[in-house]
Design goal:
- The chain has one domain (about 1-75).
- Helices cover about 45% and strands about 35% of the residues.
- The chain is built from four helices and two strands.
- It has a two-stranded antiparallel ribbon.
- The longest helix is centred in the middle third of the chain and has 14 residues, at about 45-60.
Length: about 80
C-alpha cells in the first residue's frame, strides 16, 4: 500500500488494522450493500445480486462467525 501511495504523491501517516467478528446475520447485512454486491458480482444488476446473496445465505445450515480484517489508512499529499 505504501508503494501505491508514494507513486501517487501521498505519504502514509498512520495505518491501523482492526479485527471484526461478524455473526451470520451481520455478514448477510454487509454482503447486501450495493457496492459490495457489485464488487463480488460485477455486471449483475443489484436486485439480481441481492437475490443471489439471499439464496446463498439461506442455504447456510449452521450459525457461524466470520472474521474480517479492516485496514484504515491516514494519508497526506506529499510535497
Amino acid at each position: 500500500m505504501q508503494e501505491i501511495l508514494e507513486r501517487n504523491s501521498f505519504t502514509l501517516v498512520k495505518h491501523e488494522s482492526v479485527r471484526i467478528i461478524y455473526t451470520q446475520q451481520e455478514l448477510y447485512e454487509f454482503l447486501k450493500i450495493p457496492v459490495i454486491i457489485s464488487s463480488y458480482l460485477p455486471s449483475i444488476a443489484y436486485d439480481v445480486g441481492k437475490t443471489i446473496m439471499e439464496n446463498v445465505c439461506r442455504q447456510l445450515q449452521k450459525p457461524f462467525q466470520f472474521v474480517g480484517i479492516w485496514h484504515y489508512y491516514l494519508v497526506k499529499r506529499s510535497g
